[in-house]
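Q: Convert this sequence to structure tokens.
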Amino acid sequence: MTTWHIHAENTHFVQGDVLAPSRGFLAGWSRWLAYITPLALTAFVFSDHIQTVAPGLSAPLLMVGFIGVFYVLNVLGVKISAMAQMVMFGILVAGFLVFIGAGLPKIQAENFSPMMPFGISGAVQAAALLFFAYVGFTAAAEIGEEVKNPARNVPLGMILGLGACIVLYVLMSITASGNLLWSEQASSSTPIYDAAKLVLPAVASTILLLIVVLAVSTSQNGFQLAASRIVMSLGRDRAVPERLSSVNSRFGTPVWGLTATVVIALIFVFSGKGLVFACYTSNLTFLFSYILVMVATMLLKSRKPDLYENAPIKLKGNWRFVLPIVAIAVTVVFMALQEPEAMLWTAVWLVIGAIVFLLRRKQLAKEGVSLDKLMQRMPSEMD
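A:
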């Protein structure tokens, strides 16, 4: 099974014949959409925040311009987009720490009562909706080919990234909720900005709004990078037209794969479905791919012992089954809590993927090429 081939990436462990190539393709195909939908989602958020301070600006123009800027950055190369990412990340962390430092001492305990206005079920539903917000750290795995010493640095980066996200998200949530009633947050499209206006001077709160814009910008940049690498890897396997895996000779970037990614994102932007629909669709496609990854994790040792033994980070003993089974159970629950219409369109996307796979298999068979064998290659066998 090849979920998303990262050429020469040591952290790529779900491949070969761990699962059937068709299932591996669908995992990569679903993950492609999972990274595309946040592009539309962050464009919605960007537009809402900018219109808070500049209400006369056109929302469609803002969203297209926002996606377009990061499209150009990613076309110009991973070094430029990575440099922009680091600068934006540094600024936004500094801004968030200022907000947290100013807001924590002003927390009003009564704002936390009730702690869960809609009970446990409401908290679980909220977690299911906001699942996509924590998946960005996995984007590091998609660009392993462009990372030095990926066996060490990719897992380390994912762990550190997740830890940093948890700490910042929790502190930001406590600060915002301690200063702004949950009901006021629920009715606002810019809750952090509204909370900032209560704890920071006017100019500082406006600066924080721009820092929130930087936060969604880092997501836009990172998801464009990751999504284009997934479709590029599918093209290398020839599971989709090879044109999508071609790399620009000048910039060294998969321009066709990136362009396809951005075009589909713009379709979501102008579909009229809105931000919440994009959230649900992203969640479902991520969760679907995770189920296949968890199944492959349990089978890896028996079907690909060499890959298992050489993996720098792996589950041992009964943990090989306990953790994936628990993860699958949680995943199924989260999938059941997503919006029915998003479930339908996710199913449509997977059906399209299945058709693409079958057509490519048939087309390559006429050329005397086995798509299944292509997808069962190890990264080291691709040159």
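The chain has 15 helices and no strands.
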